[in-house]
Structure formats: structure tokens, C-alpha cells
User: Fold this.
Amino acid sequence: MSKLSQYLEIGSSPHVSSGASVDVIMRNVFVALLPVCAFSIYAFGIAAALVLATATLTCVVTEHVICRLNNKPTTIGDWSVAITGLLYGLTLPPDLPLWMVAIGAIFAVAVGKALFGGLGCNAFNPALVGRAFLQAAFPQAMTHWSLPLAADRFTDIPGSVLAFPFAEPAYDAVTAATPLARMKFEAIQAENSELLWGMTSGSAGETCAALIFIGGVYLVARNMMNWRIPVSIMLTVALITWIFMQIDPTVYPRPSFMLFSGGLMLGAVFMATDMVASPITNAGCWLYGFLIGGLVVVIRFWGGMPEGVMYAILLANAVSPHIDSLIQPRVFGTGKGAG
Amino acid sequence: MASKEVTSTDEFVKGLWRDNPVFVQVLGMCPALAVSNTAMNALAMGLATTFVLLMSGLSVSLLRGFIPREARIVCYICIIATFVTSVDYLIMALSLELHRALGAFIALIVVNCLILGRAEAFASKNKPGRALLDGLGMGVGFTVALLFIGVVREILGSGSIFGFAVFPDSFQTWTVMVLPSGGFFAMALWLLIVNRIKKKEAETEKAEATA
Amino acid sequence: MNTPELQPQTSAMSMYRAIVGIGAMCALVIVVVFQSTAARIRDNQERFLAAAISEVLPVTEETIAVDVGENGQLEKTSASLPLPVFLAYGSNGDLVGAVLTAEGMGYQDNIRVLYAYSFEKQAIVGFKILDSKETPGLGDRVEIEPHFIANFEALDARLNSSGDALNNAIVTVKQGEKTDPWQIDGITGATITSEALGNILNDSANGWLPILERDAISIDREATP
Assistant:
């Protein structure tokens, strides 16, 4: 420790504390996520419960082990890694083999968070880093979706979930295309009611748009989240989609379909708002939201894959420090004309 | 170190560990990451690079009195390109399958900074024998490093080593390890291990020095 | 670093001498290596193609390369074309089929394929991907997925009554929805690649099969092109 740090608090911005500590914020996020998790288990049964539990547990254990390896006090007490794990679990297909869930979780915490220096230093949202790794490593398993509200969901565990570690999963259930895949490859748009109330297939926590929205409203009401990020993402997506729908409604979907399908709600409310990986200033948050919204539309309309929220957020994470420096007000007496 | 006489063994050994081209100098990353998706490709790329290193090192060392300082880079590149083209033909004559797997990266050995680096930093200032030893050491170090990366990527990405399956058929392959990003992950893993060992080495040396 | 005043200038002559000398030596080395490997490389290429041909049409004993001549007729050729077409003959000298190369855009890059056409069955009876850079784990499943490979055991490629085009366009359908013998059963998760292969086959077959059906039987095998 240098001598200076005894007298001055040295760290990266922001420097002004609002008084809310990490664990208070995280506990509020947890409350906001509860209905989403509950619905996920209701819709996808034991499989989703196992995936969520494995994701959370593996993330917590990984964080603990890494802290120990570095001879530092463990940081699992502040809930942040548990929230990362839960969010990560919510982005996965509900019938993903548990061993893959665990590998992605280890990657999320070890590479997405610890390598960058732990909480407060991660450049990317760790939950999405884990998911992106799985998407690249096991593309088949990551694009296999089970039907929601299957009759035997509380009595049977799908064979794929309990696949032996490192073994290829055997799928016994029928695969169900997500609304976005149906849109992309068959040009069929799902109804708003199906999308809002989670009657479609998809990742464990992304299907029920209404509950995610309620969670977001709760966080905003408690002043635990910058509302500008989700609002600007949704506005951008809706606006661009509306423009294209005016051009050709047979090719491009309606704005409400784009908003409520896939991971857009979950991503906009819980992923893009990661306090560390998003810009600090309010103007920066607007810009960041426009960027994510624009990328989502570009990937969904013209990309090879039906869904692009994950990559859009990760890309925006990468530029968020630059957004901050771009719109930083010039300090008096520096810059142009100075010295 | 500097006071000691540099023996011929040192010239050879330094490329293997102390100055390993991939894990310490971090040179020639383009082929190291691109064609290390299987152990066989890694070995072939390593051997091709070693051949070019040896031949160009020998030629540059032999011609070091003949090449004027101002025109040295163009001469080195010309020599290196010649041997790379030769390797390209030789591999095609050996096996077309191998040539297809290595693809454009054989031609890119020309721009592998390791080769020009050794020509410039070592071969142009040393006798042919020493230049050969240096090239051999660097080449073997490069090949071994590529093999390390290649083995990890092939085991996870294809479930095999040198094409022989090491897992039962039910093994789920990790597609990412065959993709270019897998090269970065495997490389990072080995850098982590190598740096950890180097740090330990330095600490014990320091402890011995103070004791 | 080096101040020019202190450095003795190398004369232009000695620089020219070095560059020209080294250039000449390098050229010599390349010529020698090329000359000594050229025969082996040609052998390798022929063997590779022959192996691929006998894989898609195992009864093949002998092949001749053909091309459309200036008069629009099929004729024997010795030129090495970018997308060669061969007539294949069996052990007793009968025409058993044709083997064609075709190329088209896949998901990542161009895909090159080799396929066999049987005159007797009027169908595509063999198929092999020569070159593809499709995504490992997704697009490249077209090379291993058994139900997809089974498409090419007998893929209907009958000509229409006037003999100038395919009677039914070869088309890729969604996995499990194949109803007609000219449809290719696609792969879920490799939609773009399997559709691209359908288009490649359709375009190539539409262009070549009418000519082959019309002229192949009358071609002079012994003709010197």
C-alpha cells in the first residue's frame, strides 16, 4: 500500500456515493427477479429450477475459490455474484445440460469478472460473457428449446438436463422454435398476449415480458436503476422497427413483437443496466441505449441468427468507457486553447 | 549472465524456454492462433516454420558480408520468401490434404515476424553454425508451443489427439475451441501457466541471491 | 540513431549487386524446387480427384473430362477447368454416369461440391463436399448428418418433356418435410447451408444435365481433344 492511499481514497469513478451499498442494491435486484424466476420454474418445471440453481451455485463457488486462491477475503457475501449467477441462468435454454451450465458459470465469473479485477472492474456483463462462451462452444445445445407448460414438467426431468459431464446430450422432447426463429425462417409473428404472458419457448427467464417489465418498474421506483437505459433501448428498437414496417410490413415485424419477443426485455432491464459495464453520465446512458437498440435491430433483421440482444449488449459494454470520455464535459482550463 | 561465455548449447536452449518465441516473445501470433486447431496442423506449421528459420538463418549468416546494411531488409525478405515458396511446393508434393488444412497460412510464414526478427537480430551478426543452432532452437520452441496450443484445442474441440479419438463417441465437442477464438483461450491458458512458473523461478533465484 | 555524417555511404553499385545477386539466387532455388516437385503435385491432384470421383460414383473405372465446345456440342477436353465435368465409364466400357463439380455461395464462403448423375436412374446418386468453410458444429453438419447425406442416394433430377431443363427444381425443404424425391431434407440449425447446397445443385444440374443427356452417349471417347 502506498502512503498516499492512507489519506486519500483512490479508485475508479464514480467517486460520490449515493449511500446505497452493493448488497442493498443487489437485494433489490433479487426481489425484482423473484417473479421472473418463479414464472420460469412454473413454465419449464424442474428442468428450469435445476438450471437456475446450478448456475447460481456454481457462480458463487467459483467466486469463493478464486478469492481464496488470491488470498483475499471472500466476496460472496454481497450478493452480487449470486445475482450474476441467477441472471446467467435466466438467459439459458431451460433444458441445457447441467454440466454445460456449470462450465459457462465458471467462465462467467473467472473470465468475465475475476480476470478484470472482480466486482466494479468488469468491462462486460459477466452473465452474458458466460452465455456467449456457451453459445460459441455448444451452438446446438444452446439453440434447443423445450415447449413451455409441458404436461409432465413437474414429474419428469428431461434426459438432456442430466447428461453425463462432457457427454453429448440426448434430447427426448420435441424442439420448439422460438418466436424470433419462427419470424426469421417462417415469417410467422407471435401474438402479443403469448409474448407478454410467456406462452412461448425461449430461454428460462426471457419468455414472460410482463413480469420482467414489472421487475424493472420496481427497481426504477426504488431508484436502484437508471431508467434511461431500458427506455432508450426500447424506444430505439420500436422506432427503427416502425420505420421498416412502413416500408414493407410483409418482411419486417411490428414494433410490439420486437419489444416483447426474445431476450430484449430481460436484456434491456437486467443486463444492459449492469452498473459497472454501462456509462456513468445520463447522456451517456441515452447514447448507450440507442447503440444497443440499433444493434439489436440490425442483428435480428439482417444477421444470420434470429436473436442478437446478447451480442448487442456485449458490444455496447465494450464502447461504454469511450461513450463516457466522448461526452465528458471539458474541465475548465484544459483541452483546446489551454496552455 | 552477460559475463558468462555463451555456449552453443545456450544458443539452442534459449529458444525452448527462456526466450520461447510464442510464450515469452509472443511473436508469430497469426499462425500460432490460426492453424493450431488440431495437433497435426500445429506440428506441420511448426515444422514448416522451423525449416524456413533454419534455411533463412543459414543463408543470411553466410551472406552477411555481402549484404549492405541499407538494403538488408529487402534481401532478408527475398531470401525468406524463397524458402516459404519452396515449403509451399514441398508440402503440396507431400500431401494435398495437409496443404488444404494449412491453407493461406503457409504463404503467410513470410510475414512471421519471428523469422525476420531472428535474421535481423541474430543471423546477420553470427557465424553460420551459431545461426543454425539459434534457428533450430527457436523453431523447436515455436513448434512445441504450437503443439501445446494445438493439443488443448483438439482434445476439447474434436475429442481427439492427432486424429485418434481419446473420448467415447458420446463426447460433446466444444465448437469454440476449433474456431479462432479458441486459439486465444488456449493461448491465454498457457501464458497463465508459463508466467506463473516464470514468476516462481524468479522468486527462488532472488531468494538464492540474497541468501 | 545513426547520424548520416558518421556512416560511410555504401555505394549504389554494391547495393545493386547484392539485390540482383540475391534475387537471381532465389529465383534459381524456386525454379529448382518447382521443377522437382511439379510431377508429384500433379499426381497428388489427380489422385485426389480420382478418389473423390470413385467415392461419389463407385462403379467408375475410367473418366474423361468434357466441356461444351464452340458449336454448343459436348466434346472431350484436356483443359483443366475451374469446375470440371466428367463422363464416367464402368468396367465393361459402358457409360455409367457423369460426375460434375459445382460451386456456390454458402453461409461463410463459397462451397465446392462434387456430385454424380446416373443416366439410367435420371437422378443424382452421389454427393461430396470438396471445399467448405461453414461454421463448425452448425453448417458443417451437412457433411456428417446421416439423414442429410441420405438425400443424395437417389435425388430425382429428371428432365422435362422437351429435355431443356429439370422437370422439378431441386429444392431444400425444412427437416422432416421431404415429400417428393427431388426435395432435399434440410437440417435444422444449418438452414442456410443446406438451402445453399440445394441451390448449387439445382443451378448446376439445370445447366449441365440437358447437354449431357443429349450428347453424352454419342461422344467419341478416343478423340484427341
